[in-house]
Structure formats: structure tokens, C-alpha cells
Design brief:
The structure holds two protein chains of two kinds. By secondary structure, chain A is of the alpha+beta class. In chain A, about 25% of the residues lie in helices and about 25% in strands. In chain A, the strands form three sheets. Chain A has a six-stranded antiparallel barrel with strand order 1-2-5-4-3-13. A five-stranded antiparallel sheet of chain A has the order 6-7-8-12-11, with no helix packed on it. Chain A has a two-stranded antiparallel sheet with strand order 9-10. The longest helix of chain A is centred in the middle third of the chain and has 40 residues. Chain A is extended, with a radius of gyration of 25 Å. Chain B has one domain. Classes of the chains: A alpha+beta, B mainly alpha. At the A-B interface, helix 1, helix 2 and strand 1 of A face helix 1, helix 3 and helix 4 of B.
């Protein structure tokens, strides 16, 4: 039987020091208003540096095999061509999808005088926030609304860096947005982590369950954009206040085209 | 621990970090989350625990925080270090129940620092916890068998 080592707290002393050091970094970051945490993404273009160069896609390196037998060369060339064809097929599918999405979006968006910049999801972090392509390079600003191709709000930009931004969607626990209905009742929509909550800011006299909630310029938005319907929530009306919750979850994947409303 | 091993560990750490994010982005669902990075940290603490890990873990943690997270920097890295310490404590005790309890505590600590709100009776959390514990337990057994 193996002898187990005995537990000794001294073994972890450097780890405990390191944990304290992290705490110190946290305090400094807090006092410098994220000066440390935003230093890298504000100064380095991370996403654009990860783009695969066209030269690599063209597979120029295959030229190295010229000295090898013709058969191997031919085989590689054919393989390469098949890969290229697959890539083109995929690109074709993607472009068709994009055109359809654009035309659908334009039909609905023509009434609003704003710029819409299309973007895509890169990654989702562990806090259910989405990293999307484009940042200050595309003139994005924190608070810009993000819409899907149905012209419906799916979130807003929380932080904007050099070439990527962090998008808060309805699924993010920190999500909070103000909406208005046709009776000018103002609501705050928040997320608790797994449920979406709706609370009226003031007394509600009239409301229509089938009403759609909109953003408004009076609430700091650049225009009026639709959000969820009141009927999407399990509503409770008490003491002239309207509140509700919903389990509605937005599915956003890497193929979903997103539009950033940019003025 | 040689430089070679350290480099290997660091590369796998970064790879796991990206793979974890990529996997959970691609199979986005509301029922469970794969926490491969966490499982790797737990294994690291049990198998390769050394003071030389501190620097590697700090770099990986700070890298994640500064690029992928909107939270203040430092807290996630501290939790990464804490997970490794807690997982190392489990090697002193043979009980599987103890191992599970430490895994549970580490998992909750880790996700409390990442997520700004965490519901402790969340189905997602429970399923993810069990799923990731099974993954960890299986890999841990495989590693032991290899040794």
C-alpha cells in the first residue's frame, strides 16, 4: 500500500500569496476603472490578427513538394482542389444566406434613419456574454443596440474594444434595458441568470397583453426598435404595477447574422 | 518540473480555455455546460501540483480575464489558483465523497467568480456539475491506470 503524504498548509503558501496578489490586481483595476483589464484589448487588435491569410488558404506551401514524385504532387493538387471546391460551396451557401438575411432586414429597416453594420458571433464567454466581430474599427460604441434579421433587438454592446465588442443579450445575467409600450408605460427588463424579468417603473393604468415593447429616444436609444411582446411574459398586475417573468431564450449561434445599429 | 513540461502544461491550458469556449459556443444550450478548463485545472492540481504552476496559471487566468470577460481582472485568476489548491488537498484523503465535495465547492467557487449571478438550485448547474465530475473522474482513473 502506498503511503499518502501528510497534509501541510505550508505547501500552499506561495499559492496563497499569489491569490492575494490577484486580489491586489483586482483592487487596482477597480480603482483605475478597468484600466488594467482593458489595456490589452484596447491596444492590440486581437481578432483581426487571428484571420487566416489568403496565401495560406491558397496552399502555396504545396510548391515545396515539387521535387517529389509527380504522383504525390498530383494527388495533393487534387486534394487541394476538392478542399477549395468545398470551401467555395460553403462560401456560396454563406453568401446566399447573407443576401437573404440582408434583403429581409432591409425590408424592415428602411423606415429608420440609422446605419446597420452586420457582424457575427466569435465566442461566448462563461458569463453568457457574446464576443462579436468589430469594435472601434467599425465605430461601435457601448450601448449600441444589436438587432437580428427580423429587426428585433437581441441586446446591446456592453464594452467595445479595438476590433471586437462584448454583447449583452437577454441571456446575459447583467442584461438590463428600458422599454416602452403604446400607452407610454416604461418597463425595465432584466435577467436573473435563467429567467427574464419585467417590471413597470411607474403605475400602469392601461396595458395591452398583445402589445410589443419598444425602445425609445426618450429612454436614451437612437430610435424605436421592437423587443418582446408583453404576452411573452407571465404577467402579474398588483398595486397598479405590472411585473412578469419569461423563460424565453434567444438562440444565437455562429451563423446568426447580427446588425449593430450605429448612429 | 522541467521547462518542457511547463510549456506543455501552459499550451494545454490555453488550448483547453479556447476549446471550452468554442465548444460551449457551438453547442449552446440551456441544460448543461462543458467545463473542460475547470476539469483540466482539477487534474493539474492532483497530478502536477507545484509552485512553478503559479506563474502559468496566472498568465492563463489574466489572459482570459483581459480578453473574454467584462468583469474586473484578478478574481477569475484567484479562483483558478484556488481550484488547483483545493484539488491538491484531495490527494491527502482517499474518500470519493470527499473528492466530490471538494469538486462541488471548487466548481461553485469557480463559477461564482465568472458569472455575476448564480442560482444554486439551477438545473443547469446541477447537470453540469455531475457531467463534469464524471468526465473528471473518468480521466483521473485513466491517468492512474497509465501510471
Amino acid at each position: 500500500m502506498l503511503n499518502r503524504p501528510s497534509f501541510n498548509l505550508r505547501r500552499y503558501i506561495f499559492f496563497i500569496f499569489a491569490i492575494f496578489l490577484c486580489g491586489l490586481i483586482f483592487i487596482v483595476d477597480n480603482f483605475t476603472n478597468k484600466g488594467i483589464s482593458n489595456f490589452i484589448p484596447n491596444n492590440v487588435s486581437i481578432v483581426s490578427n487571428f484571420k487566416i491569410s489568403e496565401k495560406f488558404l491558397e496552399n502555396d506551401f504545396l510548391m515545396m513538394f515539387e521535387s517529389k514524385s509527380n504522383l504525390i504532387n498530383e494527388n495533393l493538387r487534387l486534394k487541394n482542389e476538392v478542399l477549395e471546391l468545398r470551401r467555395l460551396k460553403e462560401l456560396n451557401f454563406q453568401l446566399t444566406e447573407e443576401i437573404e438575411s440582408y434583403s429581409q432586414f432591409i425590408k424592415k429597416a428602411q423606415l429608420e434613419d440609422a446605419n446597420y453594420i452586420s457582424t457575427r458571433l466569435i465566442l461566448k464567454n462563461s458569463n453568457e456574454e457574446l464576443l462579436i466581430n468589430g469594435g472601434r474599427d467599425l465605430n461601435f460604441k457601448p450601448g449600441d443596440l444589436v438587432l437580428n434579421n427580423q429587426y428585433v433587438i437581441i441586446g446591446y454592446l456592453e464594452e467595445v474594444f479595438n476590433d471586437y465588442s462584448i454583447l449583452e443579450t437577454l441571456n446575459s445575467p447583467d442584461f438590463s434595458i428600458q422599454m416602452i409600450d403604446k400607452y407610454n408605460n416604461i418597463y425595465t427588463v432584466t435577467n436573473s441568470g435563467n429567467q427574464i424579468f419585467l417590471n413597470s417603473n411607474a403605475d400602469v393604468i392601461n396595458y395591452d397583453v398583445n402589445d410589443i415593447l419598444f425602445t425609445d429616444t426618450t429612454l436614451g436609444s437612437n430610435g424605436s426598435y421592437p423587443f418582446l411582446k408583453l404576452s411573452d411574459f407571465e404577467l402579474t398586475y398588483a398595486n397598479n404595477k405590472l411585473s412578469g417573468f419569461s423563460n424565453n431564450i434567444f438562440e444565437i449561434n455562429m451563423r446568426t447574422l447580427l446588425y449593430v445599429e450605429n448612429n | 518540473m522541467s521547462i518542457n513540461t511547463q510549456l506543455k502544461i501552459f499550451s494545454i491550458l490555453l488550448l483547453m480555455l479556447f476549446f471550452d469556449l468554442f465548444l460551449n459556443t457551438s453547442i449552446s444550450n440551456q441544460f448543461f455546460t462543458f467545463s473542460l478548463f475547470f476539469v483540466y485545472l482539477f487534474l493539474l492540481g492532483r497530478k502536477y501540483f507545484s509552485n512553478k504552476l503559479i506563474f502559468l496559471l496566472m498568465i492563463a487566468g489574466l489572459f482570459y480575464e483581459s480578453i473574454f470577460s467584462t468583469n474586473y481582472i484578478g478574481i477569475f485568476t484567484a479562483s483558478v489558483l484556488l481550484v488547483v489548491v483545493l484539488s491538491n488537498v484531495t490527494i491527502f484523503f482517499e474518500s470519493k465523497v470527499f473528492l466530490f465535495i471538494i469538486f462541488l465547492i471548487s466548481y461553485i467557487t469557480f463559477y461564482t467568480t465568472i458569472r455575476t449571478s448564480l442560482n444554486f438550485i439551477d438545473l443547469n448547474l446541477l447537470i453540469s456539475l455531475l457531467l463534469n465530475f464524471l468526465i473528471f473522474y473518468r480521466i483521473d482513473k485513466l491517468i492512474k491506470r497509465d501510471v
